[in-house]
Design brief:
Elements lengths: L1 E6 L5 E5 L8 H15 L11 H6 L34 H14 L5 H24 L1
Antiparallel strand pairs: 1-2
Length: 135
Amino acid sequence: MKRRNITSSNGASTTNETSKKSPSSWPMYSLVSTVAVACYINGLNGDFVHDDIPAITLNKDVLALNPLGHTFKNDFWGTPMADISSHKSYRPLTILTFRSTWMIVAIMEGVAKEFRCDKTANYGACFNREFTDSK
């Protein structure tokens, strides 16, 4: 840690430096990511519920039935943003991750687990990012 210059009584400038190293921050980042993932891991074996059904299984943007450009024109639920019934929740990056996951695992039994794994990894990364940004 560097300290500011100290001027002595005779006008000479000296610098005080400490030789201590700052502690590594990787253990804290690992802890935050682990706690974030642990909060969601118990739901990996479940099925789609509540808002997962319209947001994933019925959303034409996620199912790749709409052109890719519609992802940036539609809300989270797949409704055009200009539509009066739109929820106005604009999350194109979330929809793109859902779409890529859907395209990787295709339409198969147990697809909910793959989506939950993807979401859990994203939560861990996001919580870690928020923790590092808040420092």
